Amino acid sequence: MAKRAVPFALFLAVATLALIMAAQTAPAARAHGIGTPQLLNVPAGPYMLSAWTDPSPLRADETHVVVAVIDPDTREMIVSGVEVTITMTSLADPAIVLREVAGTDYVNQLLYAAEFNGRVTEGAWRVGVSAAGDLGAGDEVTFEVTIDPARGRNWLWLGIGGMAAVVALWLVSSLRTEKPPRPTRGRATRRPPAGA
Hints:
The protein is an alpha+beta fold. It has 2 domains: 2-24 and 153-175; 33-147, Immunoglobulin-like. It is 26% helix and 37% strand. It is built from 2 helices and 9 strands. The protein has helices spanning 2-31, 155-175; strands at 36-44, 47-59, 62-70, 82-90, 97-104, 112-115, 123-133, 136-137, 141-147. Strands 1, 2, 3, 4, 5, 6, 7, 8 and 9 form a 9-stranded antiparallel β-sheet that branches. The two termini are 35 Å apart. The relative contact order is 0.19.
């Protein structure tokens, strides 16, 4: 019975590890990309800018701004030779200004992205986006967002950790060798062989 339990326990251990790895890559895969549209093809000097925020709703511990820089003449995205600056200003306290030069988005190489995770606080913020490059410096375009409170504890990770611990304990216990049954004391009765 223990030999049958070992492959099943190994399967559960591998499945748990796969779930943990999927949970780690899922936030990275959805962290950037498109998200909620805030600006679409807004003229900004020699460029047109589009901007999205992700996730929805934005949270103090997870705030991403993704930007597309477009050449207004060709309507093609500009993916090099441009620097995109994203500024977040608290509307509750305008002295709080966060500035980030956006890097190439690792999910969509045609976009620029900046993360403000853990740097913003709950409340209303003004987001400014500007681009400067070979065509010159563009004007800053702005939009406002509301940041929700941070999520706090991530119960998914606690659940996955608990499940992994249970599977590990079960795996260890199933690998133990069984003790042979103890002989019983007393008089043993022999049965005659069949056909005798």
